Amino acid sequence: MAVCADGHQTQATDYCDVCGSALTGVPAADPADLRLCPACSVPTSGRFCENCGYDSALPAPPPPRTDSPAADLRGTADARETVWVARVFADREFYDRVQARKGPDADRVAFPGFYPERRIELRGSEFLIGKRSASQGIVPEIDLGIAPADPGVSRAHALLRVGTDGSLTVTDLGSTNGTSLDGTETPLSPQVPLPLRAGSRLHVGGWTTITIDTLS
């Protein structure tokens, strides 16, 4: 059994098992015997890492946590890189369906002769769909009260919400004429969030369709 300079008996032949000091006369380690230190990843051959002093006889250090706050922030940042876009336009097909089924206010809703399409980037977390009302303090991010306005749209009609994971949902806020999705006639249940995807189509009022997409 080898003895280090401080008099400790050691079974190792390169570094003392007790104090970690190098044993004199130890030949240089064969590169083939080198391994990576579990703590700092520097090549080492003895029990104690020459770089950080890690004792290889101890249990290996745990891997970095993937559920740490920093990891959560990275995941949220990656999710937030997705930017949703709402495309608002006058939809003749939807208007014809409303007229055919004699929907609410159908008799007073006329299809606009000209309605410029609008694209609204959804940068944030919540986006109200409705009509501006100074008296009621309603300022929707997607304002459908701009002329020519759809008379079938409520002041506070529906809400788009972007989750922390980047997902998008729509919630009808109890609108008078309801909100439907992807050409269906069945209105969404009020106050119940519904997941959306790229390509989803929201139908509100008497002729307004909002198509959801991602910013390319």
From TrEMBL:
Q: Using the record's annotation, list all stretches that form the FHA domain.
A: 127-186
Q: Which CDD domains match?
A: FHA
Keywords, in A-Z order: Phosphoprotein
| Record has Phosphoprotein as a keyword | yes
UniProt cross-references to SMART domains, sorted A to Z: FHA
Offer one Pfam family short name for this entry.
Answer: FHA
Q: Decide whether keyword Phosphoprotein is in the record.
A: yes
* UniProt-recorded name of the protein: FHA domain-containing protein
